[in-house]
Amino acid sequence: MNTNHVRPRPILLLLLVPFLGLLDVSLYNVAEPTLFGFPFFYWYQLLWVPITVLLIWVVYQGTSHDD
Amino acid sequence: MTTKPDYVAIGIFAAFFLLVTVMGFWAARWKQSSEAMSLDEWGLGGRRFGTWITWFLVGGDFYTAYTIIAVPALVYAVGAYGFFALPYTIIVYPFVFAVMPVIWRIAKQHGYVTAADVVYGRYGSRLLELAVALTAVVATMPYIALQLVGMASVLAALGLQGEIPLIIAFVVLAVYTYSSGIRAPALIAFVKDVMIYIAVIAAVAVIPSKLGGYGAVFAAADDAFKAKGAGGILLKPDQFLPYASLALGSALAAFMYPHTLTGVFASKSANTIRRNAMLLPAYTLLLGLLALLGYMGHAAHLQLASNNDVVPVLFKTLFPSWFAGFAFAAIGIGALVPAAVMSIGAANVFTRNFWKAYVNPAVTPEAEAGVAKIVSLVVKIGALLATLYLPTHFALDLQLLGGMWILQTLPAVVFGLFLQSLRASSLLAGWLAGLVSGTWFIWSDGLKPIHHLAIGSAGLSLYTGLLALVINLVVVGVVHLATSLRANR
């Protein structure tokens, strides 16, 4: 069976960025600065939703899909 | 929570419930092919779901009714720690983008319906297939029961006492899932998700303005946690690793469940899944805002009999009856979609990996659909009886164990897609080691998800499921090396 569909390409490393940004909790476990009343802890993590979508979109555009 | 029946809210709830019931039965004819009913048709909708249907379907069954009740309840109870659901449901999407299109393609090529099918096709091991299939079914059962718990909490908030409303709702669900298969939840998910979006957006826009803005909401929650002497709106340093490991472990486990994989396999193309990895995070945004309802509960000074009441009581207290009824209908219908997909997923596994594998290998696709339909009924009745006769914590404990168990199937299901030389023997040994060690840790920790590892005088605490996965992977590696060395001698 041909299982080698995903050739390792540098652009795929972008998919790891959200893991780095979110799994090191010491980066963002602070209250200041607040945004619209949200402590940093909350708006920082919410901000990663659009950032992650953007990163996936860049990878999607940058790789070829024959299916 | 004892409440007087609220007839306006009950009327709205009943009207929407009736609407989705009609849709559920009508769904049998929606996008139906001319072929006879096969398992591919009943259980996967003929693999013809495009981007938007998949978005509603997977969104509807990944972000479940129980999530809508439980995440704000956890945030209400413990604060920031309950927010791990947010990083969890973000980092799951790079994983989905990279892995799920590959699995989809193999499933499509060979007509696979379950993860255990993929595993059997890759390794040819009935034993490994059985391990993956058994884990999937056992992990899914308590998940279905929890959807009922979510529905029961909104029925109670409406003032509907007793078990009859819950039984009626579930029997109706069972019957239309039987006749329509996955098309029923796929169609109902449109209604459910639109309703959930309206309810949550209204809640996060209107409630804070009644309570003095988001700054006041966070301040009130902070005061409540300080008065209680536990929890907080920021994490304590010893919670960093539990928080991160819960997020990572949950993200890796999420798409190993039959209900999420069923949504993936039902997609029309690999690009359908890739586009959904970019569109589904919209639900995560919603979930993140929804979680804040827990803090709004503190700001509104709610008196709650149980943490799980925070969302229903908040809606009843701060919204007119008709809107509360609408929101409760959203949550109640929200329980139907995942419960239906979960029972279909479990039924697919039973049919393919028990019935076809052991009882009748020559079963036709039509007979497969027949078996799966019956099993979906049995699964739902089992979940209903479990909800009615067993204490709720039983389903919760099993759900906790189930998440750890399903995570142990990750190496068998996913790693073989990218690594050529893996063998069934090492994967099976790893699965067993992860399962046994994880179960032992959770059991000896008093059914808590976090295990403390003492390393010398220091130590670290992390999600037991992830710890068990590490043990699983170490065993896979060791057995792989040992058998490779022996083979080369």
TrEMBL record, chain A:
<dbReference type="InterPro" id="IPR021741">
    <property type="entry name" value="DUF3311"/>
</dbReference>
<keyword id="KW-0472">Membrane</keyword>
<keyword id="KW-1133">Transmembrane helix</keyword>
<feature type="transmembrane region" description="Helical">
    <location>
        <begin position="41"/>
        <end position="60"/>
    </location>
</feature>
<dbReference type="Pfam" id="PF11755">
    <property type="entry name" value="DUF3311"/>
</dbReference>
<keyword id="KW-0812">Transmembrane</keyword>
<protein>
    <submittedName>
        <fullName>DUF3311 domain-containing protein</fullName>
    </submittedName>
</protein>
From TrEMBL, chain B:
<feature type="transmembrane region" description="Helical">
    <location>
        <begin position="164"/>
        <end position="182"/>
    </location>
</feature>
<protein>
    <submittedName>
        <fullName>Sodium:solute symporter family protein</fullName>
    </submittedName>
</protein>
<feature type="transmembrane region" description="Helical">
    <location>
        <begin position="278"/>
        <end position="302"/>
    </location>
</feature>
<dbReference type="InterPro" id="IPR038377">
    <property type="entry name" value="Na/Glc_symporter_sf"/>
</dbReference>
<keyword id="KW-0769">Symport</keyword>
<keyword id="KW-0472">Membrane</keyword>
<comment type="similarity">
    <text>Belongs to the sodium:solute symporter (SSF) (TC 2.A.21) family.</text>
</comment>
<dbReference type="InterPro" id="IPR050277">
    <property type="entry name" value="Sodium:Solute_Symporter"/>
</dbReference>
<feature type="transmembrane region" description="Helical">
    <location>
        <begin position="49"/>
        <end position="75"/>
    </location>
</feature>
<feature type="transmembrane region" description="Helical">
    <location>
        <begin position="130"/>
        <end position="158"/>
    </location>
</feature>
<dbReference type="InterPro" id="IPR001734">
    <property type="entry name" value="Na/solute_symporter"/>
</dbReference>
<keyword id="KW-1133">Transmembrane helix</keyword>
<feature type="transmembrane region" description="Helical">
    <location>
        <begin position="463"/>
        <end position="483"/>
    </location>
</feature>
<keyword id="KW-0813">Transport</keyword>
<feature type="transmembrane region" description="Helical">
    <location>
        <begin position="426"/>
        <end position="443"/>
    </location>
</feature>
<keyword id="KW-0812">Transmembrane</keyword>
<feature type="transmembrane region" description="Helical">
    <location>
        <begin position="322"/>
        <end position="350"/>
    </location>
</feature>
<feature type="transmembrane region" description="Helical">
    <location>
        <begin position="398"/>
        <end position="419"/>
    </location>
</feature>
<feature type="transmembrane region" description="Helical">
    <location>
        <begin position="6"/>
        <end position="28"/>
    </location>
</feature>
<feature type="transmembrane region" description="Helical">
    <location>
        <begin position="371"/>
        <end position="392"/>
    </location>
</feature>
<feature type="transmembrane region" description="Helical">
    <location>
        <begin position="81"/>
        <end position="104"/>
    </location>
</feature>
<feature type="transmembrane region" description="Helical">
    <location>
        <begin position="240"/>
        <end position="257"/>
    </location>
</feature>
